[in-house]
Amino acid sequence: MHKLQRQLQTDHFHLQRLLNYLSHEINCYDFDSERAADLTVILSALDYVNVYPDKWHHPAEDIIFGRLIRKKVKESDLIQALKDEHQAIAQETHKIHELFKSVAGDCIVPANELLATTRHFISLQRQHIEKESEYIYPLMDTALSDEDWHAIEKEITLQSDPLFDAASKKEYDHLYRYILDLEKSKNN
Ligand SMILES: [Fe+2]
Ligand SMILES: [Fe+2]
Fold it and tell me: Per-residue pLDDT for 168 more than 70?
């Protein structure tokens, strides 16, 4: 497997962990929640989605997906739909980021709106990853040659993940510890 494909697959695994955390944290806005949400960590999670998955993972996939479409693979329509979803996801990220920044700025945002918008975002992201993993990533093994990967490499610069990469996660250290704590508590 090419190292770019491996990193993209690892990104999916990591993004799912982040979505699990966000899903857990957003439950604090439910009317019967006994915990208060940690706004700083939610904002950090949304900032991360904006700077890494939206800015590196999706654009890198766009380049690979474009090549698969040019090869006229039978999944081309789905691949195009997934490319379009990258735009929709980035817009949703921006929308909920703004919403939570308003909350942090003491603007009144109804809890229902926060819950509905964030849960929609989480579901969109999860379904997107599932479709890619099931239908498109296996094509990278069968439809792309070494020459294809060589050309793709010239267009994509590998970037380290600022949250999950051990060498660079300092900026999101607080968020990272929250994710680990939640996973530990679920395993106990
Ligand atoms: Fe994607
Ligand atoms: Fe993806």
Answer: no
